Amino acid sequence: MSGTRGVLVSLQRCVFVISGQGQGLFRSKRMSTESAVKRCLRTYSSAMYRSAYSRGESVSVLGSVNRAAKMSTVSGKETGLLFRQLLDYKSYTYTYLLADPVSRIAVLIDPVIDMVDRDVALVRDLGLDLKYAVNTHVHADHITGTGEIKKRVAGCKSLISKVSTAKADVHISEGDVIKFGPYQLDCYSTPGHTDGCMSLVLRSEGLVFTGDAVLIRGCGRTDFQQGDAGKLYDSVHTKILSLPRFFKLYPAHDYTGQTSSTVGEELQHNQRLTRTRDEFIKIMHNLNLPYPKQIDKALPANMVCGVFDASQ
Amino acid sequence: MSGTRGVLVSLQRCVFVISGQGQGLFRSKRMSTESAVKRCLRTYSSAMYRSAYSRGESVSVLGSVNRAAKMSTVSGKETGLLFRQLLDYKSYTYTYLLADPVSRIAVLIDPVIDMVDRDVALVRDLGLDLKYAVNTHVHADHITGTGEIKKRVAGCKSLISKVSTAKADVHISEGDVIKFGPYQLDCYSTPGHTDGCMSLVLRSEGLVFTGDAVLIRGCGRTDFQQGDAGKLYDSVHTKILSLPRFFKLYPAHDYTGQTSSTVGEELQHNQRLTRTRDEFIKIMHNLNLPYPKQIDKALPANMVCGVFDASQ
């Protein structure tokens, strides 16, 4: 069986391994899924799994299996991505915590300085190994928590786009990937709200984190910080709204109490982005929004991971 | 093949049907999943699917298939439950919208009167058939949106527990189920915060909606509205925290910006509910919380679906 790819399927309390040719390779007796999977793994040479998963194939029903497969994961009890959406009520910012349930490696997207206590406590409660704290862009409405988090979580690195020119441990550009266990966030450059805006796509789960490029039924403003409505329109249509329609869309902000949308929904119902490019530019130029309250503190702080130099 | 149960599995752009005995029944050539599934359904008698799904078996990878299977669902593009979490910033209330993506039948849990515009617009955007608007209990902190929603959405019924003695179209009790498509919410009586508190369990998806019985790292107060700390402790431990540990837990409120938890997490980290019963009662009796601001308006309104009688 070495080299044969297989998929674990659970049905009627039996576990099957089905080969890439649809051949039934293994069928356990009726037993708890956990016992069945253990037996399955003992029966087959580890070579099969190395082969199956070296190509990054994910398992259908029973969640990710890797060489250090933990039974609690493959038993189906903790399948797939660990995902939490967190909110800062003051700036209406959404922070996202993503983790691989097997390796416990975690990524935090757009953490806010005022909520670092909560976020670090949650990472610890869940027994996660927080490796990356990413900013989708240099925020103007809140101070990032990445600097503070790095002080408290050993080994955690801050990430932001190279184009933003902000300080961080790692600078990301289009085409880069952020890996955590078998998962990866693909980095896309989506300028227009700012030059350095990135959107992150978790293809295997059908998720896109759009920062301020796309908001639910809206989009980020383009009247400061290198804002450019035409550029935003192009970014959004070529990189975000071109994704499969069922992809779930998670923005960095929402002001109406909605927590997510989908690419398809925005293609149908987003009153700004469904217009023509010229109409969109006209709308964006006539928004007449007030000056953002936090901007004079947030921008300089966010150029340095939100970390204040006591000597300044 | 009539009467044989099967599971649809997608692997390497082929679609397989695997029988309950692990036998490969069908394998398509490499083609788009949607085409493959169409071919699969044509090849097999519909009797197989009636048999497979009359027992409520859900499909592994490709989402739910029912008798009126729509190809967009079985293609894997819109698999499984449609679920949205919505927030009212004023009362920190979470409203939940659940729907079957095939029949479009939807349920709304704990809608808030101030957010009815948003909720009805979302139901319409998503092309849903909102049948039920449920209150987990008679809320003291906000006025329910169920009455207003019923005026705007023809055929939508309001639900609340019989024990609450509040007016509604349908009174639910422990053991009742709220069905929408192939999904069902099992109703559990979880008194203690109020006598009429219900928790709703969507077993097939591993979700529990706890109202105010369990909050993330906390629980509802027990100092008014028939509150009883001992009763709450018993309810929570026998009906909610006895669920599988991986079940996701969605409360009616959160004040720290968290959106969900799991049964396992609360069993480990909830500082109140992990105590002994006596310790818990002592904690709850010494909370010394301020009188809820909205209570004098909310309680009488929520006894009548939030609908104000102009003659009063």
SSE layout and pairings?
Two copies of one chain form a homodimer.
Chain A: E1 6-11, E2 14-19, E3 24-27, H1 33-43, H2 46-54, H3 71-74, E4 82-88, E5 93-99, E6 105-109, H4 116-125, E7 129-134, H5 146-152, E8 157-161, E9 170-172, E10 177-180, E11 183-189, E12 198-202, E13 207-211, E14 214-215, E15 218-219, H6 229-240, E16 248-251, E17 261-262, H7 263-269, H8 277-285, H9 295-302
Parallel strand pairs in A: 6-7, 7-8, 8-9, 13-16
Antiparallel strand pairs in A: 1-2, 2-3, 4-5, 5-6, 10-11, 11-12, 12-13, 14-15, 16-17
Main location (chains A, B): mitochondrion
Keywords (chains A, B): Acetylation, Dioxygenase, Iron, Metal-binding, Mitochondrion, Oxidoreductase, Transit peptide
Cofactor (chains A, B): Fe(2+)
Description:
Two copies of one chain form a homodimer. With 312 residues, chain A is of the alpha+beta class. The first copy, chain A, is 25% helix and 26% strand. Chain A has helices at residues 33-43, 46-54, 71-74, 116-125, 146-152, 229-240, 263-269, 277-285, 295-302; strands at 6-11, 14-19, 24-27, 82-88, 93-99, 105-109, 129-134, 157-161, 170-172, 177-180, 183-189, 198-202, 207-211, 214-215, 218-219, 248-251, 261-262. In chain A, the strands form four sheets. Chain A has a six-stranded mixed β-sheet with strand order 4-5-6-7-8-9. Chain A is globular, with a radius of gyration of 22 Å. The termini of chain A are far apart. The relative contact order of chain A is 0.10. Chains A and B meet through strand 1, strand 2, strand 3, strand 4 and helix 4 of A and strand 1, strand 2, strand 3, strand 4 and helix 4 of B.
